[in-house]
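Entry 0007
Protein: ABC transporter substrate-binding protein
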Amino acid sequence: MKRVALAVFSFCFGLLLVGTANSQDTLVQPIRMAYLQNDIHHLPLWVAMDRGFFNEEGLKVQIEGIFRSGPEVMSAFSAGAIDMAYVGEAPTVTAVANGTVKVAILAQVNTEGSAIVVGKNSQITDISGLKGRQIGVPGYSTVQDFLLRKALGDPGSDGNRANVTVIKPPEMAGALRTNQIEAFVAWEPYPAQAVGMGVGKVLVYSGDIWRNHPCCVLVVDKRFAETNGAMVKKAIQAHQKSIDFIHEKQDEAVRIAIKYTGLDEGTIRNAMKNVTYISSLNLEGLREYAKFLNGLGYIKVNDLESFMEKIVYPGIGDAKRN
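Output (structure tokens):
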């Protein structure tokens, strides 16, 4: 009889534990995450999801949006639709400076990783050949828009201007093939894909325009961060695990990239050669973005150091460093 009673007690206690665990799981607030479509810069996010790094940190992450450009991500933040995102640094700077969003940068995601592509049989052989040409960019105030303007020199000079048109990266190779544009600048893997398709050739990699330039960042909505500080720290830890994984297990990282993009292995490997994954925030690069965008008139920042304190999450580096 005692054995039966003990067995019943053990069974009931086990059910209680399971019920408690399930109850605790339901109390974990999911992080509403967003990223850019097929952007291989965002591989750390895919790795974290595939390898369970968010789960290891006790986090639930749900993908709330897959967007085609950084400004679209900023609009989602503005609408209160997402909590975190992997997104370009330039659109983040623009949106924060213009007061359309209240977000902070948590970590770097990558440096470099974009390219200017021209038609396979194009006679354009250097940057100067882009002047007056029809060039596709993912959007104004994107990293790629910034890089194109930086490559061309003073954007205020008529002689240095290109005819820029906004085209979403998945459509760029097609637009190049049908001569709607004569060149485009995009994040990987779209340059590598255009080359692999026999549509285009790389005119210049972004690292040759600005060496080690910061590109994508992990960003958080400030209202979310104020009430979920512990979750924010855990998300940063999961991100770091992903960065380490990419460096230590590249073949497995390639497999994950193929899974999330649907592209072939050759394209993925060629694209990844052009990207450096890193978590340490490039503060000097952030300053340069702000100064350049200020000069273009995209933003108005009177006090750069105050802006740095505003846009960088507390404790992430020293925003006052010169």
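Curator remark: The first helix runs from residue 2 to 27. Residues 104 and 310 are 7 Å apart (CA to CA).
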